[in-house]
Amino acid sequence: MSPDDFLPPSVHRLTDGQPLRSSGLNILNAPKLQVTLTNEPKLVPAADAPDLAAHKIFTDHMVRARWSAVSGWATPEIVPHGPLVLQPSASVFITPHRVLKP
């Protein structure tokens, strides 16, 4: 199996069923990863810290990778922790509603 076998149907439609590598769209390229470190690192909590078990502690950084139907994947980045930007029409917001609907 290749990574293309795990792509959603929408990507296969955009690439006319051709493998992503031959579609002209950029692939997600980890060796091009750009890193921007935070200026305010937090102390690493003890393994038994109560806030850790309560999911109240977050990492200092997150991975960001933008994708577009025109060019494919942009250069992936590790950036300081910040807001997660999602379109209001993202299926993550719509699908649970459909599942719970009688």
Describe the protein's architecture and organization.
- It is a single chain.
- With 102 residues, the protein is of the alpha+beta class.
- The protein has one domain.
- 20% of the residues lie in helices and 14% in strands.
- The strands form two sheets. The protein has a three-stranded mixed β-sheet, with no helix packed on it.
- Strand 3 and strand 4 form a beta hairpin.
- The mean pLDDT is 78.
- Keywords: Pyridoxal phosphate.
- InterPro entries: B_amino_transII (IPR005786), BCAT-like_N (IPR043131).
- Its cofactor is pyridoxal 5'-phosphate.
- One of its GO terms (molecular function) is branched-chain-amino-acid transaminase activity.
- Belongs to the class-IV pyridoxal-phosphate-dependent aminotransferase family.
